[in-house]
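Section 4.2 – Deliverable D4.2 (structural model, holo form)

The reporting period included a commitment to supply a predicted holo structure for the target in complex with pyridoxal-5'-phosphate. Inputs used:
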Amino acid sequence: MHDNYLRHLDALKEQNQFRQLPQLIHQGRFIQREGKTMLNMSSNDYLGLANNQALRHAFLNQYQEQLPAFTSSSSRLLTGSFPIYDELESLMARAFRRESALLFNSGYHANIGILPALSDNKTLIIADKLVHASMIDGIRLAQCDFLRFRHNDYEHLEQILQKNHRSFERIIIVTESVFSMDGDCVDLTRLVALKQQFSQVMLYVDEAHAIGVYGENGLGIAEQQGCIDEIDILVGTFGKALASMGAYVVCDQVLKDYFVNKMRSLIFSTALPPFNIAWTHFLFQQLPSLKAERTHLAMLSQYLRNAIVNIFDTKMPSESCIVPYILGDNELTIKTAQHLQQQGYYCLPIRPPTVPKGTSRIRFSLTADMQLAEVDQLIACLQDLAV
Ligand SMILES: *Cc1c(COP(=O)(O)O)cnc(C)c1O
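Output (structure tokens):
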């Protein structure tokens, strides 16, 4: 009965693309795998908050006996809406100085729900070629017309807009702000200027890798580039730098009302536990005060990016704490990652189809709880590889 599945799995094994859940033991910013302890360079915990015991205690100390509930027991539209949800949404709307915010169970829920809710047969979605799988799935569910523009190529996007804008009542431009494989950034000011040439164009920006990390108050690339007001649908997640779980959109009140009425992944899923929302609320309040973490992370990132460029004389697309070392060849990338793991750095090889052919790479993900000496030791290992 399962023969067909088994054959597919065998084929994946043959292509070296068989995935397995790794067995890991976490020790702060270190990770233990098969008995070996390594610095975790593959996490999304960019601000280094996930292992911060002081924050955890400060959070728990707010409560005496009565902890927030560990389940919401229902969708928010039934009985799963607790006051802490509204408190976090108000806090976020105020921080972003926008009319409203709405919470979701995950970034995946947000991205598969928002686009179908907003789209009809007079809608065109135009997405950056490299957007996250969750947005692609949302676009598929939206069942409207769909085009892609070459990655961060705004002239290409403009051509598509010029050619199509008369045929649609609504056009939604979909992008990320920091892209997860190259660590490069969107130019939101360009996108906003483009959008403003057409009356029916909306901008959808996913800040999953940027919220907490960039901007004076940690509100992301939209804050850094000074255009929060101009992003119609500003999405982000709490599972990365914010060391929690869940996601949000910041938008006009009318769009929030529309999502509450139309968005299936919001309506038909049990809301996150109030305990979880309270933790997110607690951490979001800390965001403006985490400047030292952001500055340290930016310093480490620039240091590693420069070192890789200098050692290997290679391309460096990244402007963020996601730092790729692009080797090109698949086998060499796997071998090099294994070697670095042997040396104590838990970094992973990324190969096609996750990245384009010929750009296999090791992806270093830096976090604010790493020390300069640790990055220096990694750089020394990379130098040994080059000779
Ligand atoms: C991680 C990620 C998501 C998914 O968010 P989850 O909360 O993990 O479901 C969505 N979009 C982008 C760009 C991401 O990197």
